[in-house]
Amino acid sequence: MENPFAALLQDTNSPPLNTTSDERATTETLEETFGFTLNKDRRGSLIFLEDLSASFPSGVLNVEVLEHALFERLLLTNSQDVGEAEVFVYLFHCFKKTSAISDVGLREKVEALILRNAVTALKQELKELFEGQDLVKQFYEILKTLELPARDFFEKIYKRFCDDGDTAGTKEPFTMLLKLLHIDIARATPVSFPVFVFEILNSYVSDEFLAGILLDYCQPPSEVGIEYANTLLGAVFSVSVLPKVISGSYEFFQDPLDQASNAAVQSSLWMNTNHIFQDMHAFLLNLLKCGREIRMRTLTWLCNCLKANVDRGKLWNAHVPDFNLSNGNTVTDGFMLNITTVLLRLCHPFCVNIKDGRILKVDPTYCAVSNEDALAKDVHLLDMSKETSLIPHDSEQEERPASSSYNFVTECFFMAHRSFDLSFRVTNDKLVHLNQEMSRIERAYQDVLSQGPMSEIADSIKQRMASELSKYLSIKCAMSEPHFQESLFNFMSASAFWLSQVAVSASYKSNRATSAPIEAKEIVFPLPAEVPDTLKCIPEFVLENIVCFLVFLRRFNPKVFEEQGYERLSPILTFILVYMGSAQYTKNPHLRAHLAEALETLLPYHKEDPVGLNTLGGIQRERLFKEHPHRGEIVAILLDVFVGIEMTGQNVQFEQKFNYRRPMYLVMDYLWAMEEYRLNFVNLAQEAELNMEAVSPPIFLRFINLLINDAIFLLDESLSNMAKLRELQRARDAGEWGNLPPQERAQNMGNLQHTGMLARFDNILGKDTIRTLEYLTSEIKMVFTHSTMVDRVAAMLNYFLLNLVGPNQKNFKVKDFKEYSFDPAATVLDICKIYVNLKESDSFCLAISQDGRSYSPQLFELAEVVLVRIGGGTLIGELQDVSKKVERKAAEYKKHEIAVAEAPDQFLDPIMSTLMSDPVILPSSRQTVDRSTIARHLLSDQTDPFNRAPLSMDQVIPNKELAGEIKKWLDEKKLKL
Q1: What is the DSSP letter of 527?
Q2: Which of 645, 666, 687 is the last residue in one of the domains?
Q3: In this structure, are residues 792 and 936 in contact, taking their beta carbons and an 8 Å threshold?
Q4: What pLDDT is recorded for position 750?
Q5: 618-656: buried (b, 16+ CB within 10 Å) or exposed (e) per residue?
């Protein structure tokens, strides 16, 4: 018989006594896991499912009962206060508790039930069951917690969807999760970037179908560049120090004049952005490993993004960004820099160590593949075949080399270069222009302060300066992140090594398996006569990218050169010499000139660097010029480029050539101080002396001719502009502009600034040119005093010395010589040194005396007075020797001039109007000129001066008959003296 007191004796916290111990244990476990009970006596902290308990009066919970109980518990969330009211959060809490169930079989069944209910709740058609609950958002909030079970919960829910075979049902909730993630990323900054982002994204790349959902969601609605920034991946790439939208505000460096604050902000931003893109790289790498189809789709997304934003690389984008309406159709600088960062990290394995040869797997023919052939050859970066290549090709007639397919290393290499071209190069241009603009603002600020109390205007200019400085610091911060800079240096050094190897690799037949160099070869100068056809495939921007990066480091971050060291610098110098040294390898003269600028970046020090810029010195770069195996080629190649940018067929704009030559002067100045290189110059000069009238003029002779041309032009322009400046400043200071209309007054001010800018440019280059002539003439004499050169050298020196020490010198006195880089004292010293250097030459001293425009016996006396004043007294004695010798030569020539004064017109050179000593006939125009005259002309222009027909010295015809007549006439005159 049942004990009537059994109910009193029974533990009210346990299932009824008429159940087995296993049933009691299971019931307790399930109650603990799900937080509900069917036993009203145990309601306490548990929810009592009253309706369901009527159907199961025993109060026992098992798997079968649980299925009904759990569903009822979920429905209660809409009507009662039942503790955790959010369905998905409740299910996740239950899921976490299953780990405590020791019975494996029971645990698996319970977990399956939870997951089935979770999947059911996420399905679109059943959402009305849980009205008012955003189940996907609850799911998302769970994932954001980064709890260890959350990732497992995500994966098992997805697997349950897959087991149900409901493809459409799977896509919708997992796409909704991405939308919520997208919103959070879009709001993020480098400082506030959520830590959970990549945990969630990496959950998607664990399975190919999930990765496909992610890529589907990331597809832009159109191929307009800015649309890529509006995708989820684009939102990650947009997280930057720089604004997320074109013309957006700059959030950081709000107190730009506080250096300590700037350093702290920069350090924090660098740390955060490095972490973000370290994670982004790992995520992208996982995506690329997630099956072939996902890999191809990922590469297509990246490459199409680059293609859609190609307008960023247009010249006007950097020069007039605020007025260019199409800028709104492309992504921002921050976006493109970030995508470059990730691509560089993908390139790291084959760039970090060039000795392992992996960079040599890059196939140089990749960019020659047309869009039509791209798909068949696994090429995703489209439109590359339209880019200008190192060696021109006839796109319609000529078939460029191509391989049958291309590997990931090749594609990654060219993607990174294309991305750099559209990001770093463009942003660097903006940084340089911003730097120049800040200098102009600072000068304007100083001008305002110097004119007395104008506090409102001064404050306005100061605020503008602070705003521009904030922008400058932000851009420089984004471009200078240390890990980014290291990746870039590895990449550019490896690219330089690869390009050098391509240059010495044999040409390849089309449709070979690969055209990559594969094995490293020794670089030997002179380079092979056969130029590889593969250079017809490599875009010029690959070389430009290397130059751009080196110039950036030189201007803004030179310590990186020293940090990277000689081993990484050495391939860069080799590359520069290979492609700068011959138009056969680099047809574009502008590009060769840019390579000369890259050579200048490798100098160990620069005289004009601000204090503190080069904190690590220049030991590693100095090793380049002392130890590099091809250093003996530097001087000859440098002179070849100097000449090449002006010679026929290699012409550049007249003004542009001076910009190109400035870095060349700096390199030559550095090299001349080293005996090894000085001997290189002297040897080239000696070769020129032996071949002054050769068919092809020696390179040193052509170099000196152009150097003199430049000196004449630049110094003349310099003095002219300084005279204009003086007049403009005088009119302004005298108040002559005060009564003018505002527009005319502004026009005069603009004219003053423009003239000042031109004067500064000419002064700097003119000083460099004269300085170069001075040290060259200290060791090299004959070339400068040869008949083809000596008259021009003497006339140039006389003209400029007279202007600088004669009565006209007051015309060039302006306010603040330093602002316009005008240093007449240094120029006078250099000119006087050149006189002294060449004083032993009789022809030079005679040429000085025969310059009727500027020379007079008083010229050197005027120079002596100035030398005493500017600290050049040590030169006076030697200059007096020059003066005496010139006077002697003048007297000797006077007798000769009397003898030839009555020379017949046919004996006179038609260009110089001087008596010919070696007349020659020009084959095309049939004109007769003196050999020295035409030889000098052909140094600069290889055409007949009378009809512009092509001409070289081997084509001129000696006029022996006329030469005999001249000699006879001279002999007769001498007899009469």
Answers
A1: P
A2: 666
A3: yes
A4: 83
A5: bebbbbbbeebebbebbbbbbbbbbbbbbbeebebeeee
